[in-house]
Automatic annotation (TrEMBL):
One of its GO terms (molecular function) is zinc ion binding. It comes from the Eukaryota. Keywords: DNA-binding, Nucleus, Transcription, Transcription regulation. Residues 21-51 are annotated as: Disordered. It comes from Neosartorya fischeri (strain ATCC 1020 / DSM 3700 / CBS 544.65 / FGSC A1164 / JCM 1740 / NRRL 181 / WB 181) (Aspergillus fischerianus). InterPro entries: Fun_TF, Sterol_Uptake_Regulator, Zn2-C6_fun-type_DNA-bd_sf, Zn2Cys6_DnaBD. Pfam families: Fungal_trans_2. This is Zn(2)-C6 fungal-type domain-containing protein. The keyword Secreted does not apply. Gene3D superfamilies: Zn(2)-C6 fungal-type DNA-binding domain.
Length: 470
């Protein structure tokens, strides 16, 4: 066989069948003549040089590459993020100066003679760049999967009306506020563990510790701009939700709830209008549109709760205990009267009370040795479960995949710590509700949807013997 059989040069081109090129075989002389005429008639195209600069500093290059990778995972258009390019100021660019980083430009830019200085200076600057400096976390592909789970399933729904912030605006802030990324990964990991029934990963707690450390550092100084306040508020809510998934997270839950209120107040006082849409009464204003859709909860469940709380009243000694007691009664009475809207408003009053109480009074309520306050906290947690058909309206979608196993564990912990006749007398109703919910849930982790279906479809299972007799 001819070794040049598959080599198509000018001399062999005419021997190739015309059908290979999608045309009929034509006379070679005619083809050559037509080709030469076409070349003369068409002007040559000028190749326009690109205007992209390749002379940015190394820090800006790394930052843009990281954000591009995150954008690809989140299916976000990279160009819509409008990331600032390196301004290429010498000897240090404005981006590095603002972040207190050592600015180093890549060597070997032969066409940039005016910026080439002393070779000794170039070497020293590169050595300085390689020295240990502010540690930046290396996030893995597994972390990107957790980020995707956060965006699709695990993000908070509070503050109400701002759910889209967690899925659109917040991921773009993580490159500047690293502690927010750790908060996201911690919550997503905890949420995924409860859904799959696996043990809480150690990495989830590590992310939480790093997020708390970064949040404390950020809150130690006033936010410089609205995006800083957005990052602080988002981290507070994310850590609050993660606390609700932890078996021993009651104290953390209340403290992080207070952090949400603190940052919100700070944003309103300093007029920091960022991505979050909030004001003094934004929660109730937003929910007023949902009031007409609130379901009615069986009044007999509330009657059992009122009867249980009445036993606790003689134990109350501290003013804050009496305040919380009255707020709990207000919620239960509203449910008993089929006033779902009033019950929801009273529940938000309890939340606001936890946020605004002095620190010493909060410690009093959370003291595990204070039996009267622990009984009140157990009743409060049961109210959160009973009102889940109403509170689920806070989200754009039903909170079907939000775990409640953590909060139910808090009630069980209070029961176990108290035990004896004290627990049997004052915690019988909370304990009975928790056991009924667990008994009627087939999966390992109890979700809001499980509690919601039980309360709306099978309320008789939650009633005491006295309640069933009514």
């Amino acid at each position: 066989m001819d070794p040049n059989y598959l080599v198509y040069g000018r001399e062999t081109l005419n021997t190739v069948p015309g059908r290979w090129f999608g045309r009929q075989k034509e006379n070679s002389a005619t083809a050559q003549t037509g080709h030469s005429k076409a070349e003369k008639s068409q002007p040559k195209r000028r190749i326009r040089p690109h205007n992209k600069s390749r002379r940015g500093c190394l820090n800006c290059k790394i930052r843009r590459v990281k954000v591009r990778l995150v954008a690809e995972v989140l299916f976000i258009s990279y160009h819509r993020l409008n990331l600032p390019k390196c301004p290429e100021n010498h000897p240090a660019c404005e981006n590095c100066q603002g972040k207190d980083l050592i600015c180093v430009y890549p060597p070997g830019l032969r066409n940039d003679v005016q910026y080439l200085g002393d070779p000794a200076r170039d070497v020293s600057s590169q050595q300085a760049y390689l020295q240990p400096r502010r540690k930046v976390a290396d996030f893995t592909i597994a972390d990107m999967c957790l980020l995707q789970h956060f965006i699709t399933d695990a993000h908070p729904h509070l503050p109400v009306g701002n759910e889209h912030i967690y899925t659109r605006a917040l991921p773009a802030l993580t490159y500047k506020h690293e502690y927010v990324m750790h908060a996201i990964l911690g919550l997503s990991s905890s949420h995924l563990a409860l859904l799959t029934g696996s043990a809480l990963p150690v990495e989830a707690l590590r992310h939480r510790q790093r997020a708390l450390r970064g949040l404390n550092e950020a809150m130690s100084q006033a936010p410089g701009e609205a995006t800083d306040a957005d990052a602080m508020l988002a981290a507070c809510y994310i850590l609050t939700f993660q606390s609700s998934y932890m078996p021993d997270g009651l104290s953390d839950y209340i403290m992080m709830l207070r952090g949400c209120g603190l940052v919100t107040t700070l944003m309103l006082q300093q007029n920091l209008h960022g991505s979050f849409s909030i004001d003094a009464n934004s929660h109730i204003k937003y929910m007023e549109a949902q009031f007409g859709r609130f379901p009615t909860i069986d009044s007999r469940i509330a009657s059992d709760g009122i009867r249980s709380l009445s036993l606790v009243k003689p134990l109350l000694k501290h003013p804050v205990e009496e305040t919380i007691y009255q707020l709990l009664v207000d919620v239960l009475v509203s449910i008993e009267q089929s006033a779902s809207c009033a019950a929801y408003v009273h529940l938000t009053n309890i939340m606001n009370e936890f946020i605004t109480l002095p620190q010493c009074e909060v410690r009093h309520l959370l003291d595990p040795e204070n039996q009267s306050s622990q009984v009140l906290m157990a009743h409060f947690l049961i109210l959160l479960a009973i009102l889940s058909p109403i509170t689920s309206m806070e989200a754009t979608n039903r909170l079907c995949n939000v775990p409640m196993v953590g909060m139910l564990s808090w009630v069980a912990n209070i029961w176990t710590h108290m035990s004896g006749k004290m627990a049997e007398r004052y915690l019988m109703w909370p304990k009975s509700v928790v056991e009924t919910i667990r008994a009627n849930t087939s999966r390992t982790g109890v979700l809001v949807d499980d509690v919601l279906v039980l309360i709306m479809n099978s309320p008789d299972k939650l009633l005491s013997q006295h309640g069933k007799a009514r």
